[in-house]
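go over this record:
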Amino acid sequence: MQSLRNITEFPSVELCIGGVTEFADTQPWIYGLDNPYLHGVYAPTVNELDVSGLAVEGELPKDLSGAYFRNGPNPIHQPKNRYHPFDGDGMIHGVYFRDGTATYRNRYVDTLALRKELADGFSVSPGVMGPFDYNLSPFGIKDTSNTDVFFYNGDLMSLWYNAGDPYRVDAGDLSTKGYFDLSARPQRRMSAHSKVDMNSGELLFFDYGDQPPYMTYGVANARGELQHEVEIELPGPRLPHDIGVSRNYTILHDLPFFHDVNVLRQHGYRVLTFHRDIPTRFGIIPRHGTGQEVRWFECEPCYILHTSNCWEEGDWLIMDGCRSTNPMPQAQPGEGELASMLAYMRLEANNYRWRFNLRTGEVREGDIDDLNTEFNKTNPLYMGIKSRYAYHQRIPLHHEGGYTLRFTGLVKYDNESGRRWQWDYGKGVFGNEAVYAPRIGATSDSAEDDGYVITLTTDSNTWQSYCLVFDAADIEAGPVAKVKLPHRVPFGFHAAWAPGEDLYAIS
């Protein structure tokens, strides 16, 4: 069988042994493991840095103030079993913009699981690919807090994809303050992709699990106080990943891509199946509604990772996002015991729109575009109100060289017309999720794309990482500023923007 780490197609650099790039700033144990998500652009870093006065190509805009934060996996210890990117210890990278200058820092999320492993000196978690062990963790595996990050109530919140325990992180120095608990909430579990409404300051969150109630939904105010949380009736355990939020409603997801909980209990493995004969259901609930007020709408079977935006137009509720009709692509020959993981991570999705008539119950749905894109973001000031633009990552399919999940370009969509604009990162250059950064003083009355789009890239030709700043109105012109980062930044998951008027007011 061909070595998996040798077919990630990353160019070689000066220090290269056996066709595999070796880094001086990574964990040495990765070179004993044949897993592409531990090599090349995915290789973890061992450094935690704090560097100001970063070199800039071009000029940072004077009306750009705030910080770009990105969470992602960065394992410290060699995994006990097969490694999956969800198993890597969470690390947050931050690029801070202020007065035309840029500062970078990165820190591990100091989770309970990481602290225990550091004390033991080795990893004890069985990992996402199992077998799950509920004697080690209430989740059966390690809660790494490596998936999502958002700015709320003066701090960053770090979350895990599998509805783990959220952590509160200082937005200034990136130190972990401890668990994030909502006042008066009896438990803390919360899914990644809970959302903050920048206009009201409210946090809209959901939780899910393998035991009834299989889902809950709640709202907290801007001060971190629980307003209400309700149980959502589902037919069984599900793995929802996101929600949609308009001004008055929240759209909950019941998707036909889930595991058999009996197999998990008997054998310790979470085996996902896409049930093509089961419709996708969307539960629409008033923002502060009860479980009894949920109205379910049935759509074509699919899986959804990330929504872009939702809004109301008369009797209609519209949701834009990325839709996958093949959430578990076929495994490829020669991939061995990692075949299922590699197939799952090869994300196939496209820009899509759903429309729900709240008076008649009618559903309309269809493609906005067929290009393979995901990790989609919009102007956060437009959350819940009608918007046109979304900023996606271009993801090559397997036959295009997309052996592993990678982002090769930034795509801006006009979701009204379906028109798209692209900027390729370059051969061997890979991006991360981009965020929209409003200009200083911008509101939802400002032009929707009168701001900036920011992402991180790593050039595998040189292993240099950069932070790119684009004019949101013209991404095809390329970045207006390119900030040179002080070390290689591994590929990660989700990113967030914290506006300077909030971030620096607390520093």
In short: The radius of gyration is 21 Å. Residues 309 and 383 are 6 Å apart (CA to CA).
